[in-house]
Design a protein that fits this description.
Two copies of one chain form a homodimer. The first copy, chain A, is 33% helix and 25% strand. With 520 residues, the first copy, chain A, is an alpha/beta fold. Chain A has three domains: 227 residues, ANL, N-terminal domain (Rossmann fold), CATH 3.40.50.12780; 97 residues, Roll (Luciferase, domain 3); 118 residues, GMP Synthetase, Chain A, domain 3. Chain A is globular, with a radius of gyration of 25 Å. Chains A, B: This is AMP-binding protein.
Chain lengths: 520, 520
C-alpha cells in the first residue's frame, strides 16, 4: 500500500530531510536523525538475530532512556511490539507482566530496578542489561550488527501494533493495549495542532515512558521533526538544567511537578523562558513564556491509552458547558446505553468511539476485546454526558451499574453529585437488593472534619443534581472508604454494607420468573 | 475497521459536537453542521435513487457553491466520487470530461455555464440544473428524499476515492486523480498545523473548487470544525464584504488577487483585520493581521493534486538551502534516477513519494498508473533536488529526458539555469541527435528586449550553474517559444530545430548494436 506510514518511515524521512538535526538528547549523548536511523537499523538486525519476529513482544524494564526510543523504532522495523513496563511495580507485578506478555527479549536497567534477572529471570527468555559505563551489554550487543535495513522492513503495515502499554487495572489485572503506527502517527498531528508542535520543537520527556501521556508528546515531536530530551526520572533541578540547556519548549508537567520546578528555581538561577506553558501562579508565569491559547488555558481533556492519548480536548469548547470539550478531529464519539443506542443529550451513558487513533485491542484478551468492540464501536468503559452545546463531560469509570425500578444508575454519576457538596470528602455508591425496585442506591460517605451534613440533607442535595430515581435511599457515614488503586473497593463495600443484586451478577432471587430470565 | 474515518463521519461528528455551528455560508444561506448532515443524507438517498453506486462518478459543472460541498459529502456517503469540473473549459473539453468520466449523474449551474445540456446532453445520463430562484431543480429533487442515513453508509472505507480532480494536461489530455477520504482528512491535519486551523476557523473559498489548492483548505476547515464561506467566483469587492461580514481568518489568495483586494479596499471601507495572512506590501499589511510565522513568511511549497495538496512546505526549512522546504510529516520523499535509485545530494532526479495523503491513482488510466506507481513509490513526473541540509528544491516537470554521453539531462534543469541569466526572457531545451554523444543539448532562447547576451556567454553561464555535460552545445535565439498550455511545445520545437533521438523514442541509429539494444 502506497499510503502506509510507519514509525520507521518517519525516522527515515527525518534522516533524509533533517539528518543532521538532533532527534534525541540523553545525558551527554546527542543522537541525530541520521544516527537514530542507523542505530535502529542495527538494533532491528539484533532483534532479528534473537529470533524476534513480526508480532513478537520486546519488554523494557527501566527508566526513561534513549534506548526506549531506539527499541520502539527497531521493534517497528521488524514488525515487533515494544512494551515499556512500569518499573515501579513490585516483583510480583513484573512477573505477571512477563507471564502475560511472553516476550521474546527483555532489556533492563539494573541501576534502576536492581538485578531483576536473578529474581525473575526465565532462562528461556534472552535478557540484555544496560549500564551507563563502558561495560554496557546493550551497546555491545546492538553495535555488533550491521546497519543494513532489516529485511522485513518493506512489509510493515501502518495498522500493525508497535507499542504495548499496560493500562490501569480497574478489573483486577492490567491489560496490554496494542497501539499501532497509524494510531501513534495520526494522534501526533492532532496534538501538534493543539500544542503547536513543528520542526524545531524541543520536548522534555519529564513524564514516564510507560505512560501514554508522555508518549503522545514524544511521538508527536518525532513525527514533526523535533528533538526529544530524555529525563531518566523526574528531578526538578535536573529538569530546570535541561530546559535551560536545550531550550525546551514543551514538557510533561502535572501541577505537583510545576510546584517542584518553581521551588527548585526559587532563586531564578535557571532560564526557563523557552518553555511555553499555561498559567500556574505568578511565580511560574514569570519564569516561562505564558501560553494564552485555549490549550494553554486548559490542556485537560478526556483520554485513554486505548485511544492513543486524548479523545476530547477541553481547548475545543473551553467556554462550553462540558467539562471535557470536544473530540479529536480524527475520532468519533457517541454516548450510548447498554444496548448501544444513543442516550439523550444531558443523560449519562458509556463513551463509545472509533477513528484513526483508536488502539487495536488488548493483547491476548479475546473476551475483553469482544465485550469492548461491538457494533463498529469501541466501548471505553467510561461514562460521559453530551451537553446541549455538543461538548462532552467525563463522569467516571463505568465499573458497575445499579438497576433500580428498571432504570440504569451509574455509581460514578451519583458519587460526582455527592462530591459536589462542600461537606463531603469522599463517597462511594453501591446497590442494595430491594424486593420492590430490584436494587436501591446506598451512599457511603466520608465527611470533612467537623462537617455535620445529615443523611436527609445529602439526599436532597443529590436530588437537585440528578434525576430523582438516582438519589440514595440511605447514606452511611464512615471514617474511610477502602480503595483498590484509585477506585473504591466496591466488592468490599458490598460485603460491609449489604450490596448486591447487580444486573448480570449472581442474582438475588426476587421472583422465580425474574431469576430464570437472568440466568437463561 | 474501527479506525476508518470518512468525510461523512467528519460531518456526523461535527453534528454531534457542534451541530448548531455554521458549516457553510453561501449568499444568504447559513447551513449548520446539523443541517449539513441532514441535507447530505437526503442527497445521498437522491443519488441512490438515480442508481449511483459505490465507485460511480457524479459530475458538477458550475462555479463554487454550497451544493459542491453537499455533493462531495453525499457522494462519500454512498461510496461514489464527485468530480467538480473546470467550468471555464470549452464545450469540447467538457465533452472530453463527460466521455472520460462516464458519470452516473450531472449537476450543472446554467447561470454559469449556460444550458450545456442542450449542447452536451447525453440523454442516457440524468442531468439536474441548479438555480438561485424558487425554481431550483436541484433543491426540489434532493428535498424530496428522506434524511435517513443512506443504507450503505456503514460500508464506506477511508481508502475509497471520493473526489476526482482533472490535473494539468502535460501529456496532451487531462487525467482524473482519485483522492480518498484518508488522503483528504490526513492532509487536513498537516495543513492545520501549518496554517493554525482549529475550531472556529472561518475560511473564504475564494479560489475555484475544481482545484486542490482550494479544497485542501476547505476540507481542513471542515475537519477541524470551522466554517467555509463560499464565494461563487472571485470578485474583489464581494470578497472584502464577506471577509468583513463573516470575520474570515483565511482565504485562498494569490498575489494578483491580493492586489485586487488592496485596490477594492483603497478607501479602507472594509474591515479586513480578521484575516491572518503573510506580508504583501505596506497597504495590505495594514489592512490585515500580519502572520509572521514561517508559514506567513512563505506559504509556498511543492504540491500536486496527486498528493492531496502539498508535499513539501517552504515553512519547514524556510532558511534552508532548498527552494521548497521539507516534506509533510505524513509523507516520504525520495529523489530517484530512472532506475529508481536515490541520486546523490545536489543531483537532479525525479521526485518520488508515498504516504498517508497520496492519491489512489488516475481514473481509468491503467498504463499511466503502472508507469507512475513502481517499487512501492509514486513517481510524480516532476524533478527535484535534495540539498545538503536535507531541504528540497523543485526543478520543473520531467517532460522528457536527453541522453548525452551516457548521462541523463533533464531540460527543466538547464532551462532553469538559462532563466537565471538577466538577459533571458524564456527558454526551452531540446536534444539533437549526435553521432558521437547520442544527443547534444540545444537551447532555444528568447532574449529580453534590447538584451544582447551571446551564445557563448549563455553557454558559459549555464556551465557555472550545472554540471558541464549539461551545458548547451548551441543556442538558437528566437522571437517566441511555442507553448501548449504552460509548457513549451517540445514536439514542435524538435521539428523546428532538428530535435530527436530521445531515450525510449524511435531511435536515431547510431550503431547497430545500440539500436538492437534500444528496441529489444
Amino acid at each position: 500500500m502506497y499510503s502506509e506510514l510507519s514509525l520507521a518511515d518517519i525516522v527515515r524521512e527525518n534522516r533524509r530531510g533533517r539528518g543532521d538535526m538532533v532527534a534525541l538528547v540523553d545525558g551527554d549523548e546527542r543522537i541525530t536523525y541520521a544516527e537514530f536511523d542507523e542505530r535502529t537499523d542495527r538494533l532491528a538486525n539484533a532483534l532479528t538475530s534473537e529470533g524476534v519476529l513480526p508480532g513478537d513482544r520486546v519488554l523494557w524494564i527501566g527508566a526513561n532512556s534513549h534506548r526506549v526510543f531506539e527499541l520502539l523504532v527497531a521493534a517497528g522495523k521488524v514488525g515487533a511490539i515494544l512494551c515499556p513496563a512500569n518499573w515501579r511495580q513490585s516483583a510480583d507485578e513484573l512477573r505477571f507482566v512477563i507471564d502475560d506478555l511472553q516476550p521474546k527479549l527483555i532489556v533492563s536497567e539494573p541501576k534502576i530496578v536492581g538485578d531483576l534477572h536473578d529474581s525473575l529471570g526465565d532462562d528461556r527468555i534472552p535478557w540484555v542489561r544496560c549500564s551507563d559505563d563502558s561495560d554496557d551489554e546493550f551497546q555491545r550487543w546492538s553495535a555488533s550488527f550491521p546497519s543494513t535495513p532489516a529485511p522485513s522492513s518493506e512489509s510493515i503495515h501502518a495498522e500493525d501494533p508497535v507499542l504495548l502499554l499496560y493500562t490501569a487495572a480497574f478489573d483486577g489485572r492490567p491489560n496490554g493495549a496494542l497501539i499501532s503506527h497509524r494510531a501513534l502517527i495520526s494522534h501526533s498531528l492532532v496534538i501538534a495542532v493543539q500544542r503547536q508542535i513543528k520542526e524545531g520543537f524541543v520536548f522534555l520527556d519529564s513524564g514516564p515512558l510507560f505512560h501514554i501521556g508522555t508518549w503522545m508528546f514524544a511521538v508527536a515531536t518525532f513525527v514533526c521533526g523535533g528533538t526529544n530530551v530524555v529525563l531518566s526520572q523526574f528531578d526538578p533541578r535536573r529538569a530546570c538544567e535541561l530546559i535551560e540547556r536545550e531550550r525546551c519548549q514543551g514538557a510533561m508537567l502535572f501541577p505537583a511537578m510545576i510546584d517542584q520546578l518553581v521551588a527548585a528555581n526559587g532563586d531564578d538561577r535557571y532560564d526557563l523562558s523557552s518553555l511555553h506553558f499555561g498559567p500556574a501562579g505568578s511565580t511560574w508565569n514569570h519564569m516561562i513564556t505564558l501560553d494564552r491559547s485555549p490549550w494553554g488555558r486548559s490542556n485537560a481533556g478526556y483520554g485513554q491509552t486505548e485511544v492513543g492519548g486524548m479523545l476530547t480536548y477541553h481547548a475545543l469548547g473551553i467556554d462550553g458547558l462540558g467539562t471535557h470539550g470536544r473530540s479529536s478531529p480524527l475520532m468519533q464519539v457517541r454516548i450510548v446505553d447498554t444496548d448501544g443506542r444513543d442516550v439523550s443529550t444531558g443523560e449519562v451513558g458509556e463513551i463509545a468511539t472509533r477513528g484513526m487513533h483508536l488502539f487495536n485491542g488488548y493483547f491476548n484478551r479475546p473476551d475483553l476485546n469482544a465485550a469492548r468492540f461491538r457494533d463498529g464501536w469501541y466501548h471505553t468503559g467510561d461514562l460521559g454526558r453530551r451537553e446541549s452545546d455538543g461538548t462532552v463531560s467525563f463522569v467516571g469509570p463505568k465499573l458497575r451499574m445499579i438497576k433500580s425500578g428498571g432504570e440504569n444508575i451509574y455509581p460514578a454519576e451519583v458519587e460526582r453529585a455527592l462530591l459536589g457538596h462542600p461537606d463531603v470528602d469522599s463517597a462511594a455508591v453501591i446497590g442494595r437488593p430491594d424486593s420492590t425496585w430490584g436494587q436501591s442506591v446506598v451512599a457511603i460517605v466520608v465527611r470533612n472534619a467537623s462537617a455535620s451534613v445529615t443523611e436527609q440533607e445529602l439526599i436532597a442535595h443529590v436530588r437537585n443534581q440528578v434525576a430523582s430515581y438516582k438519589k440514595p435511599k440511605s447514606v452511611v457515614f464512615v471514617e474511610a472508604i477502602p480503595r483498590r488503586g484509585f477506585v473504591p473497593d466496591y466488592d468490599l463495600l458490598d460485603i460491609q454494607h449489604g450490596g448486591g443484586g447487580y444486573p448480570g451478577s449472581d442474582p438475588t432471587p426476587i421472583t422465580t420468573a425474574a431469576t430464570s430470565e437472568m440466568t437463561r
